[in-house]
Fold each of these.
Amino acid sequence: MSGTAPGTNLEPLAIICGGGSLPIAVAEAAQGQGRRVVLFALRGSADPAAVSAFPHHWLWIGQLGHFVKLAHAEGCRDVVAIGNLIRPPLWGMRADLLALRLFPRIARAFRHGDDGLLSGVSAILEEHGFRWLGAHEVAPEILMPAGDLTRSQPTERDWTDIRRGLDLLRATGPFDVGQAVVVSDNRVLAVEAAEGTDEMLVRLATLRKAGRIHARQGGGVLVKAPKPRQDRRFDLPSIGPRTVEGVTQAGLAGIAVSAGSVVVAEIDRIATAADRAKIVVVGIAGDGAN
């Protein structure tokens, strides 16, 4: 194994791509360092138009042996996995010969949460000569900086909601529930589960329109942070322009995320859209004290 630090060598990088713009942001960042990237795009998730701009291969979830063969042929040793992905049922995987041979291990990993599943898959790949990296190790610029991204800043009421949201995420994190919560006037309105942040915000907007939530319009904060003791190579929380849209539709005051621990897609677009909507976007340093 080379002693070169992750993200600073020029060996080819394999990027396992789910949906959204983050895989492309990581690929562009790695290329900007002079590194060759090869995208392994997951069918049904990755964007064909975006993927086509890079050397790439298409895979079904479960084609473990096919990935190992192709990645070795491309000279890739470092692997990053990033992007939106709906967790498939175990019986819905298109398992190839290697996956079938390792099926008992994969089945055991499936019985755990997302972190356990990804840890199990990464251990298998490491046994085949790969090194699994976090996307932020390759492209640290995709992480949320500390401070305000927007002209609007959190009020004292917002900071109270932010601190309560962080407390709740620290409490629920060990149960692998989710990485986002909405708090308004110290009241928890929604907690992210299997649906993801975007659908949680849609649900909140629907409940508000139906009169099921009587929280004040323009109050409340979406708070996102990684789970305590989370392996940060896997599934860091993220926000993007769609998050701003969802927060606006849900009638909230803004977004607060853990600085240096949350991935930000298209940060300039986020800031512009949030300023237009007059909402707050802030990176929280430390424990959330303002």
Amino acid sequence: MTTLKKLGIPEEYLKPFTENLVGFSGEQVNVKGYIKLLTIFGLASLLKIVNVKYLVVHCQTPYNALLGRPSLNSLGVVVSTPHLAIKFLMSITEVGVVHADQKEA
């Protein structure tokens, strides 16, 4: 919920979501709702804009957002966990990259 507030998105914009998430350690996490937002991946000329459905939860975590398979698939990414990065094709010769904690240039 803190991230939603930092983005300036009122809680009233959330749409209902009736299922729970199961956390990494098996605990149930209540979903407050969801919101669809256009999200920019990459920087400068190597970027993609994708409509992402974000489930909003209230829990203590070091992450602001976790991307699921639907978002990763719509981007067509390859995930590199050792490099904490994702790569996606922009064209036949160009590859976009997003690194963990990447800040806008």
Amino acid sequence: MKIYVVGSCRVHGPLRGRPGCQRPIVGYTHTAKEAIQRIRFVRGEFSIPNAVAPFVFARQQTPVVTAAHRKSLDSADVVVVEVCSAKDVFLDGYSLNLNYANGVGEIVEVDDLDLDLAKLKEMVRRLVVVQHVELPDIPDRSRFAARVRDTCEWLGVPVFNPTKHVTLDDMLDANHYKPAVVKRIGDRLMGFLQ
């Protein structure tokens, strides 16, 4: 099975080096809109100028997409997309990564998640969505994760919920797994993809 990953450290870390895991373009994503933009970019359907690159890829220059990158995406049996943020950030029509934007761009609440997830499903052979880890003190995150699950259920898209596989002690902070947990999450995610 060939796997292509679009997301942040919560999916790239656990799946890095796994059999069949394809090498993606640099830079993390958190939203469905960012994932759509990334897929279109890799396929050559959308260009991202160097002026925006620091806010999309965390690099000063837009990465070069090679034929190998395109093949990695287009030949993937499954595309794993992390959708973990209810905040989209835009600048001049580009979706930015909230962590890279540093106050640049307009932040808006996601209001068309169903359309974005439906679009992602259309764009790839098989889509699997990974939600954020839910923690007791972050109710907004849990509400958004439930929205992701409900929408994906309606679309017939499986959702991996890492919350079922970690405890508070497994987390470095509210967003990151401890290094010892990353392999375990990867094992569970690989099992889920089968």
